[in-house]
Amino acid sequence: MPLSPVPLLRALFDRAVEVADPMRSLAAHLPPKPTGRVVVVGAGKASARMAEAVEAEWGPCEGLVITRYGYARPCQGIEIVEAAHPVPDQAGADATIRMLDLLDGLGEEDFVLALISGGASALLIAPCDGITLDEKKAVNSALLASGAPIDKMNTLRKHLSRVKGGQLAAAAYPAHLLALMISDVPGDDPAFIGSGPTVGDASTPDDARAVLARWEVGVPLSVTDALNRPTGVIPPGDTRLSRVENRIYAAPAQSLAAAAELATAHGCQTRHLGDALEGEARDVARAMAAQALALQTTLTPGDAPLVLLSGGELTVTRRGDGIGGPNAEFCLALALALNGAPGIYALACDTDGVDGAAEVAGAVISPDTLNGQRAAAEDALAQNDAHSFFARVGAQVVTGPTLTNVNDFRALLIEPL
Fold it and tell me: Which structural domain range is residue 317 located in?
């Protein structure tokens, strides 16, 4: 029996997550385990699952990986440390220092495997000289509320760190280092996955200061002082990066392709809107609502439903003090823009299972989502309180830890009228 729209949208999302599971996808990209000393390090919301996949192939390994609270996995030799995300904490800072100590003194015959996924920017935390952890946390919180795109946030983070922007790889030199990455950034630029701890970066403190100015990010004086000093970021071409290989092995495009294949198997047409969409969540939602309504007029009775798929990373500029994330805010703004239009359904979720700071992946909407609650929905949007609204109407998508992270997933299903 064909699935109805909402269960089908959820099945598409589940399929997108499934194909990015490191236990399914990482082994094909591992070389044979090198002889000699092998050290595994990593950070990110998928990193513990990645470590589990490595040991399933290589057996017990020496190493340390930092993941989000609740995302640990059992490993044979690699130590898994849980820490806070999206705002860092002392557990992450302590584990990062221990990771740098583990890399200290490695030689040319040693091998480092770095496992990097989204979330590493907050989990791999070592503030540069002159900045305290509390000050770095304040910067992270201000960035998250600013609406700045992820690449701009990460540019600033790099210049306030002793581990980002190629500095983790530099700490491992002269050992050979292979970084396996899961991309959660629009455009799949490895320099911005987890703020590029193994990737050289050509940005300057001037670029970081420009981020503060453009998005009006208030920071402590110590941060301003730090950005007036020479940066620790490692430039491309630096000798300390000469023995580094960075490889993205899972990305949003693969997950969207898998979802499209499943939608086709269920008798739908599909259209790919791109895997690197950016912008303010509510603005993108309004544009996508107009697109969906226009496309619906091109369908005739008897046509197969049309599914629009997209990925990327939308942003939210904090206006209120509610509980919301970009996926829920997208869905709320979309529901308001569609205003109960018949035959249009949508789901938007973060593939890591966490939308913003809430333990909720996202939300799903249908023509009856507002159901007389338009005023409440408008108020929730004004207060950035989308998660609370969807909790009240029973339209949240809750997955728990997915153990992977290939960014946001959006699917709109349009039925002919």
Answer: 5-15+253-414
